[in-house]
UniProtKB/TrEMBL annotation, chains A, B, C:
One of its GO terms (molecular function) is ammonium channel activity. It is found in: Cell membrane. GO terms for cellular component: apical plasma membrane; basolateral plasma membrane. The keyword Cytoplasm does not apply. This is RHCG protein. It is a multi-pass membrane protein. Keywords: Ammonia transport, Cell membrane, Glycoprotein, Membrane, Transmembrane, Transmembrane helix, Transport. Belongs to the ammonium transporter (TC 2.A.49) family. Rh subfamily. It holds the Pfam family Ammonium_transp. InterPro entries: Ammonium/urea_transptr, NH4_transpt_AmtB-like_dom, RhesusRHD. GO terms for biological process: ammonium homeostasis. The chain crosses the membrane at residues 21-40, 65-86, 93-114, 134-153, 160-179, 191-209, 221-240, 260-280, 313-333, 402-425.
Amino acid sequence: MERPRHQGMAKNTNMRWRLPLVCLLWEVAMIVLFGVFVRFGPEADAHWEEEKQEMNLTSDIENDFYFRYPSFQDVHVMIFVGFGFLMTFLKRYGFGAVGFNFLLAAFGIQWALLMQGWFHSFKNGKILIGVENLINADFCVGSVCIAFGAILGKTSPIQLLVMTLFQVTLFSVNEYILLNILHVKDAGGSMTIHTFGAYFGLTVTRILYRSNLEQSKDKQGSVYHSDLFAMIGTLYLWMYWPSFNSAISDHGDAQHRSAINTYCSLAACVLTTMAFSSMLQKKGKLDMVHIQNATLAGGVAVGTSAEMMLTPYGSLIVGSISGIVSTVGYVYFTPFLESRLHIQDTCGIHNLHAMPGLIGGIVGAITAAAATEDVYGKEGFIKAFDFTGEYRTRTPSIQGGFQAAGIVVSLLMAFAGGAIVGGILKLPIWGDAAAENCFEDDVYWEVPEDEESDVYHMHNPDKPASP
Amino acid sequence: MERPRHQGMAKNTNMRWRLPLVCLLWEVAMIVLFGVFVRFGPEADAHWEEEKQEMNLTSDIENDFYFRYPSFQDVHVMIFVGFGFLMTFLKRYGFGAVGFNFLLAAFGIQWALLMQGWFHSFKNGKILIGVENLINADFCVGSVCIAFGAILGKTSPIQLLVMTLFQVTLFSVNEYILLNILHVKDAGGSMTIHTFGAYFGLTVTRILYRSNLEQSKDKQGSVYHSDLFAMIGTLYLWMYWPSFNSAISDHGDAQHRSAINTYCSLAACVLTTMAFSSMLQKKGKLDMVHIQNATLAGGVAVGTSAEMMLTPYGSLIVGSISGIVSTVGYVYFTPFLESRLHIQDTCGIHNLHAMPGLIGGIVGAITAAAATEDVYGKEGFIKAFDFTGEYRTRTPSIQGGFQAAGIVVSLLMAFAGGAIVGGILKLPIWGDAAAENCFEDDVYWEVPEDEESDVYHMHNPDKPASP
Amino acid sequence: MERPRHQGMAKNTNMRWRLPLVCLLWEVAMIVLFGVFVRFGPEADAHWEEEKQEMNLTSDIENDFYFRYPSFQDVHVMIFVGFGFLMTFLKRYGFGAVGFNFLLAAFGIQWALLMQGWFHSFKNGKILIGVENLINADFCVGSVCIAFGAILGKTSPIQLLVMTLFQVTLFSVNEYILLNILHVKDAGGSMTIHTFGAYFGLTVTRILYRSNLEQSKDKQGSVYHSDLFAMIGTLYLWMYWPSFNSAISDHGDAQHRSAINTYCSLAACVLTTMAFSSMLQKKGKLDMVHIQNATLAGGVAVGTSAEMMLTPYGSLIVGSISGIVSTVGYVYFTPFLESRLHIQDTCGIHNLHAMPGLIGGIVGAITAAAATEDVYGKEGFIKAFDFTGEYRTRTPSIQGGFQAAGIVVSLLMAFAGGAIVGGILKLPIWGDAAAENCFEDDVYWEVPEDEESDVYHMHNPDKPASP
């Protein structure tokens, strides 16, 4: 079977030396840096027996591992299966979706352990890591997975690795500014992960604009089973989002509350997404693109406020609104962004992460500003917002202002960072494919014979064997 | 490509205004009711710091969140991925299986939080929720997912929402009668979830009987890959069932024991299912329908007794029997139910949930009746059956009698409720499809071009682009 | 549609009486043995209330259930979904991959509970089980799943059950020798699970060598969607491997440390796998076989040492090396093994489990030999290696020697056991398929009509209905 679409391939997409070089150099660098800097934190170190006595702990169950490991594993599934499979909806880019997501996330978590470690876990010249660092590394990489959604199908694996390198770095700087300088709360990452990641990715894809992308338009759609594979990703993201938003909250009531708020928000979001998906189609049929994506907006939109006293009904309101905004975005904004602003957003991250992330930041600012000692209790109030030490005198309304400032900082970092990184990725050395080969696994992957020809020709003894 | 099968479509299946209206009105109602009634329970509220001191707890790890959250997440996966993907076995109804299950469960858990809350968590005019409420809401919705299995492919999404509304209500009433009035034990829901849910669904599908359903018979089967998608659902249900049966058991040994009993029962069930699947086919070949479904009967059948001292060998016996009963049911009972009793049971829930649920109720009654202080220990005996307060004097044999009464009540509620709800669903206003369009996603979903035509026509530049 | 390939079928593959007989006899034997021997351990027994007082425990959270159950569930997913779906890459053997893996694992865990119970949990004539026994049973069966990978597609379900019976037995003996006689550490099973399981399987497949297997070569490859199904298995194995290696480690820091080491090793492994996959192909394209398998070698290779003070950078080094070894193995060793040594290794377990397992054993021996009180702390040192009682005087270098001896013992057990079991499986009574029918579900499964013919003929009313 001739594949005439490959004859026009002019760009050199051969990864044979470039990809191995980048991966191996990187891994060597990681080994050296880990060797110099990274050690086990006290709760993972064999000296824990002595540590326990010093901290007056009577049981191993007090180890942070038991507070956070189940949530960590859920987050881990969201990053690798959730994001990976969510992006398999394209009919001929399933390998790239799952495989490149796997590559960039495995690459990114190592760098994130270092970058975030230097900022947050650096003691006596060493980065001391524990389960919370693993969660934070996964979170950081989550923002790269989001950005990947915008450029899915149009970039080489090397471009993705270069983007990961820079984005993890910028993420960590932005996170440090928000959490440590502005003293902002953002346990589920509405600002640090979603707003930053999405606008970063949108800026990158704007800079990488391809005017002739309609040449691969026939491959930008889904097929029946690719839509089902994508639903695996959707559901794991949806189900485990309560773990995502509660994973690094304070022990006890804060983790508990975050999970409940997120559960409520996501449930409401499904209903409004279904409603608007049906309403905005002439024949009232549901669109899988909306179900796969907009149903998740409710998790994004309570990312900042879930650990606060948002209340279950507050969560329902936020989830309902975000489902509507996201679905409307898919129908009206995405085509507009592409045609007018030249932002080609493959997965529609503007609808799933950018707008709901902004909502999440704003809801967080309002919820913080509205906090009272009456609602939180005297001790709970101080604990919830860490109003201790130099922040002893901060009031809720001031906290709300800082939360709002966090949104602005995240946006600025995303735009500036995305523009610079986009420029770097535009260099003609990274091996990206020509427009007619976008959204096609065959460029970077050994792809087996088509299913159909195999079955139809199974009785044909002359057929060349599959690999 | 013409699709002549659609030309005969006479019924109006357009959801454009009906579905959005139902979803949005519903969500507004939920917001109002949550606003009036639902608040965080003490372990999820920011006042927990004070609560801890009052309850004399020394560690945050004593928060119920850490006892139950991992099990909650497993149950959550069972409801959304387990049931959702189990039903994707139909060749052209994968979107409906996963998508409508998603819709009805997200719809149902909100209502379940309220209904169950009014019955069980109502204090000073407020429903106080925590992680156990989330598990119970998922459980309640599980019974709707079971009923969905009977009518899969034959109903409109609005019918499913209407059914969910009523079934959750009836479930909560039945649960209240069993747990609070009869003081029955049923932590894994053999009676409340499986028996009730299955006979409810079977009654509904009986009332919705379609005499001309053979018109869509070609779509009632599976294809190779749809059977593999269904196995994802099967395995997640199978693997996480120990969490299901132990999720709301008492802390400590009861949760531990429930998981072990369920693990044993399920392992045995796989062997007897495989044995009978092979034995009942002329050529001795295994049937995927049995493997996908009957292997799970062992989890259903220990739903009541798993937290009791059923013992591992007792679990093997119960699991073995339920696998046999379920497989035999698929081969002989399902055709009989359809041809003689006009019960069209798409997924065979009679075999997977109804009969094993009855077995589970009976085994639970026997296990309770056989309980002795010797086996449970003096304190363990009282704790296991809550023989305190007004139930201080209840004996095991009396408890066994009440357990048996619980089965009867569940059956009556299911038949009566199913008959009424089935009657409501028969009204010609809900937009269900004509018989020839059953089991076909195209009625309610935007379905992408067929995979085959895409691949074959990929080189054809005149082909209209996919959505 | 005629299927001429079946006309040459000479062997009797009908399972109708043989498979049911084996399954049912087995299950009866299990019920009897469980009835005689298996009881709940103290933490799962209703007497736990009294036990708690005796052990002076103040909280139910001290029950081992809460330390290990989340890890158990992750391991459970790895065995059933991880291994099951990893093997679905073959285009026409998805039912067999998932279904037979399900069967043999459900069969094996029951026997493993007994065998391991007699060796490790036998008290006063009873085997007392708890969550740790469930994990160990899953582990034991994991070694059978590994061996299954070598003979995938070439054996009847009865052969698999017979192999499971013997392999579980030998596994338990080998495990007893290593853990109790040699006093070796191997929490993640580099030696007991991977080295033993893989060389056992390779020996079996060597004995079952089929000289004419090229007759089914057209079915030995993958198709596009079967490769995506396999990635579900890969990712769940990869994500949950930290739980695998930490599941039975000591409470506290050891579990925590194991998870971190494994996380790091796996991340590094992905990068070197991708690098070598691209480098070893002429056009630099990535090969799904490598991504699906070699990315997991990093988990195998720290199986022994993860709970030791391997350190994060040590883990990166081990993970990097194992990814390289494994990928090179797929490209060069597997063809060599088949052509020269007549070892037909369907899934390439030599690359994924055998070589990385050996690396894991060696790294464990070195890490143990290099242990010092300085690194572990005085108490931590004794606790990490159980240098108590009769092992009070054992030094790290002696421990290293015993660890190395453990590798040798595992290899010898695997070769000897594999040879004997392979000989048994060669008997012409088990119903394996002829060479031209290998890798074909149709032999043992009711397979639905081909997807393609269904879709194309959907408008044809004369088409016979699917089952």
